[in-house]
């Protein structure tokens, strides 16, 4: 692993470390903190300033900032995302959004995730596509690569047990990983983060399996 992504926790954005400390640890390990999951809230300016200090490139909003599974709310959120993207751009950062399953619900025959994509500016809002949640929602990531080419510079590569709706080791779930990897160019992906949250035995054994799986694809 050479690139990593952080996630906000009760200890802050960097697991209890300051942004400069996080950068120092990554530099020492010859790793690059590329991205981080954050919330779009009233501390947004501080979040951006920390990201600049950490040296990361992307700030990824990890959940919808307001409730409402309807087209009107998604259009309102799209406006917020465009503004957040503008603010990030001024500081040399890139703003994005990470999907789950619920964004693929529909209202009046409109898929809400599509509303978000259609109402955000591609140069301001960089989508991090969680491939696992896409297939659990009954959608095909390839359809999105075709409809919105180049909109997905970041991936969460995650296989999913389709019955339990839980993550699983690569090759054991419903994601056609070979097909995804064969269509990377169409998606515009630049950075792929492996994500797994449930394990057959333990995280290290699962990651050994996943790395071996990917190595066999190449």
Unreliable stretches, pLDDT < 50, 5 or more residues? none
| CATH fold label | TIM Barrel
Share of helix, binned: 25-40%
Main sheet attributes: strand count, strand direction, barrel closure: 7 strands, parallel
What's the total number of strands?
11
Through-space gap between termini? 16 Å
**Averaging pLDDT over every residue, what do you get?**
97
What's the SSE pattern? EHEHEHEEEHEHHEEEHHEH
> Structural class of the helix and strand makeup?
alpha/beta
The percent range for strand residues is 15-25%
Numbering strands along the chain, what is their spatial order in the largest sheet? 1-2-3-4-7-8-11
Number of domains: 1
Number of helical regions: 9
CATH class: Alpha Beta
The radius of gyration is 17 Å
Q: Which CATH architecture is right?
A: Alpha-Beta Barrel
